[in-house]
Specification:
This protein is an alpha/beta fold. The protein has helices spanning about 5-15, 55-65, 75-85, 105-115, 125-140, 145-155, 170-185, 200, 205-210, 225-240, 255-275, 285-295, and strands at about 45-50, 70-75, 90, 160-165, 190, 215-220, 245-250. The strands form 2 sheets. The protein has a 4-stranded parallel sheet with strand order 5-4-6-7, with helices on both faces. A 3-stranded parallel sheet has the order 1-2-3, sandwiched between helices. Helix 7 packs parallel to helix 11. The chain is globular, with a radius of gyration of 20 Å. It starts with a helix and ends with a helix. The structure holds fructose -6-phosphate (F6R).
Length: about 300
């Protein structure tokens, strides 16, 4: 998969939801296609909500040159145009959302592609069940006296730190990106067990920042038992240095539901944090400014 930002994350989520499959799902956030991508064993999915992201168009061009099997997912733009011109498979999704607000569309399209390619099974049913589950649970995440508001309060004027087991990296990335883009706030993320081998030592300085950090460990009922133990001990070790630390376990039946529960929680937290910060959660002026400047300068 080649993509950036709110489009690319859909590939990471697919990788984490289907973490037991016997093929690798990789998201390339880059201008260049890796040398090892070969036509014999690669299905390349170009994914750009706008269809105009320059890194994605560059890697898409290279995939074309290298003769890979290509499918594009987009709401329009150059990606749709070129795919049509070349008669390549193209999935168009509705336009008008911020890319990060189209995660459901992008994820759904991507998993359907993998099912059609014979790599996954029973996907439509899982998608329907997950959509129903999220609808049912929305009331618990939205509004007063919710866990979302609780975390927005804990993160307000502080540094949010989110730790996840490595097989849920997409969830941490999504929390970080949503806090960055919606709330215009910094957030730090890392994975266990790796952070136990380095970062745990660094949660001391700069003391004024560490003292104003709020840590959340996200976990799942299938998280490796040794990682659960590591979370427990890590929390005890760092608790006196940081302002606070919490653990949140995913909810839902299937892994898809559980991953999306945590993603949705982060989405709501970032929305309430945007409100507290007095920021418009939809606007992304700096990203637009940068893209415009790059376009102007050629
Ligand atoms: C998310 C967002 C960005 C874009 C990224 C790539 O809402 O605005 O992270 O997703 O700049 O653009 P697209 O997704 O159009 O390829």
């Amino acid at each position: 998969m080649g993509g950036m930002g709110g489009s690319a994350i859909s590939g990471d989520v697919v990788r984490d939801v289907f973490n037991g499959v016997d093929f690798s799902i990789e998201t390339i956030r880059e201008y260049d296609l890796p040398r090892y991508a070969r036509p014999e064993d690669t299905l390349f999915v170009a994914i750009s909500y706008s269809g105009n992201t320059e890194e994605t168009l560059s890697i898409f061009d290279q995939a074309l040159e290298r003769g890979l099997n290509i499918i594009s997912i987009t709401s329009g733009g150059r990606l749709a145009e070129i795919s049509r011109q070349k008669g390549l498979p193209l999935i168009t999704i509705p336009s008008g959302y911020p890319p990060r607000g189209a995660l459901g569309w992008l994820f759904g399209a991507l998993v359907m592609v993998l099912e059609r390619a014979g790599l996954l099974e029973g996907v439509a049913d899982s998608l329907h069940k997950t959509a129903r589950f999220l609808k049912d649970i929305a009331g618990e995440l939205e509004g007063e006296d919710t866990i979302s508001i609780d975390f927005a309060n804990k993160f307000y004027r502080r540094l949010p730190i989110i730790y996840v087991p490595s097989d849920m990296m997409s969830v941490a990335l999504r929390w970080q990106a949503q806090i960055n883009e919606n709330a215009k706030q910094l957030a730090h993320i890392n994975v266990l067990p790796e952070m136990n081998h380095n970062e745990i030592n660094g949660i001391k300085h700069p003391a004024d920042i560490v003292e104003r950090s709020w840590v959340v460990f996200l976990k799942d009922r299938d998280t490796h038992p040794r990682i659960l133990k590591r979370i427990e001990i890590t929390r005890q070790i760092i608790e006196e240095d940081v302002l606070g630390a919490d653990e949140v376990e995913s909810r839902g039946e299937s892994r898809m539901e559980r991953i999306f529960y945590l993603i949705w929680l982060g989405d709501f937290v970032s929305y309430y944090l945007a409100v507290y910060n007095g920021e418009d959660p939809i606007a992304i002026p700096r990203i637009s400014h940068l893209k415009d400047a790059l376009k102007r300068e050629g």
